[in-house]
Amino acid sequence: MENLATLAAAPEAWAALITLIVMEVVLGIDNLVFISILSNKLPEAQRNKARRIGISLALIMRLGLLSTLAFIVGLTAPVFSLPFTAPLDAAGHAIFDLQFSWRDLILIAGGLFLVWKATTEIHHTVDPAPSDDLLDKKGRAAVGFGSAIVQILLLDLVFSIDSILTAVGMTDHLAIMIIAVIVAVGIMMLAANPLANFIHDNPTVVMLALGFLLMIGAVLIADGFGVHVPKGYIYAAMAFSALVEGLNMAARKSSQKKRAALAQHAKHDMDR
User: Fold this and answer.
1) CA–CA separation, 210 vs 119, rounded Å?
2) What local confidence, expressed as pLDDT, does residue 8 receive?
3) Which domain covers residue 53, as residue numbers?
4) What angle do CA 33, 34, 38 make, to 5 degrees?
5) Which residues, 6 or more positions from 7, have their beta carbon under 8 angstroms from its beta carbon?
């Protein structure tokens, strides 16, 4: 472990730490949205426990992966390749990569899981089956506590590997990586309940969040095939969509207030 006093006195170490914390928080949003949606399907008494366990597992997994950096870095080495030539773009470059590492396979598997999960949830939300025993009284797909933890654990693994590889690419100091991960996961822990409650109280946000997960799953699959979509584009699209939904929510709230005021005014006129 590096000398913390030496790192604390180095401005570049602080810059790397702040940058890495921001990156870890941004990358953690995907994980947190998934945990929020999944935990909201549990009985109310189990939701906070599921979120704490899920986020704690994310911290343990990331710290554990940091302790095996050589192994994690080795996950990026190709393990096999497909025996045909990838199609080329106009510039003569391969459109996607046909060499796959363990990281690529994990990202593809995680992306497929996210696409499947988001699609399933969207289907249950749009077309709930009243006779389906797997649905709760509000039409949402029910899930057991153990099943929720297993699903959270699987996605924690995918997002943790992506997070650690990002950290490795930004700094060589293990201490900075550990501090950044702990701070980022701490922020996730603080934001978990407010975010989950906000999603629960605003049904339209659930569909937006599921759309985010569907897009993130597609991006993970593309990344696994060597098609790297800049994350800035992804989060800019998410931020714009959230802004539009925020304006829609404000418009609905204003409309409700106007209707309530008109109803109150009409009642007052009748009383007179």
Assistant:
1) 8
2) 65
3) 4-229
4) 120
5) 13, 173, 175, 176
d(CA 206, CA 44): 17
C-alpha–C-alpha distance, residues 145 and 139, integer Å? 18
- Per-residue confidence at 210, pLDDT binned at 50, 70, 90? confident
Q: Are residues 145 and 261 in the same domain?
A: no
**Helix or strand (DSSP H, E) at 78:** strand 78-81
Average pLDDT over residues 128-143: 50
Shared-domain flag, residues 86 and 217: yes
Same domain, 245 and 194: no
* Cα three-residue angle 147-108-142, rounded to 5 degrees: 20
Same domain, 167 and 258: no
How many domains, in total, are found in the chain? Answer: 2
Do 241 and 201 share a structural domain? no
Distance in angstroms (rounded) separating the CA atoms of residues 118 and 217: 9
Collapsing DSSP to helix, strand or coil, 141 comes out as: strand
Top mean-pLDDT range of 89-103, 169-183, 215-229 = 215-229
Same domain, 214 and 265: no
Angle between helix 11-39 and 203-224 (nearest 10): 120
Do residue 224 and residue 253 come from a single domain?
no
- Name the packing angle between helices 145-170 and 11-39 (round to 10°): 160
Do both 18 and 127 map to the same domain? yes
DSSP state of 129: -
3-state secondary structure of 239: helix
